[in-house]
Amino acid sequence: MKTVIQVLLCAVIGFVVATLMLNNFTIDLMEYAEVIAITLIGIIIILLGVSLKLYWEVKKLYNTDAKGDEEDEVDLLIYKKFADYSFLVQSSIVLSVLVLCTTVITLQSIVLTIIAIATMIVSYLFTIFMTNLIQLVYPERNIPKLSDSKYAEKLLEISDEGEKHVMLIGFYKSYNLLNVGLLIGIVLSTFYSISTDQSQLFSIIIMSLVLIIVNGKYCFSIRNK
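RE: above sequence
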């Protein structure tokens, strides 16, 4: 799954960069808004379909009668499939929001807008299924609700030391990636503004503020411990 995701991301990034270079960074996305929206909706449907498949696979594995080493292998497989499920569901939510924003900004047909809203609702329902799945796999733990304002802290509290170590490594890597990603986004938006005479200053300001807030939250969180 990780290799497939990396290949897809590299392919998408390579395609976008090559297209922009061939068009001297002057490509008009408005012309392709409908194609982009329809393509993203197709991707969302695929992501949700695979997510549903993973959901039933996890439930099936949970009900598997395994003992000894086989039980450890089943637990590991459940963990990996659940992680894949989480990633796909979160990705579908982000893409659904992207489609909705695209259809609204470019004044696409009401049908595409309704479909975008529907995919966003379905994606959110899948996050509820994710919580139910955790409660199914770990019935002995008091899993917090997603709406809980202290969801992250409570999730860490109920995790054992090994799980905390893995989660913290993942969070720290994500934090570093977010910093790099936003900085690259700021630089690319600046180049786009210069080459197309279409100011992206508002987006640059928002990304800069998000970057400052994220770093401030992290620094003050570890400072006050």
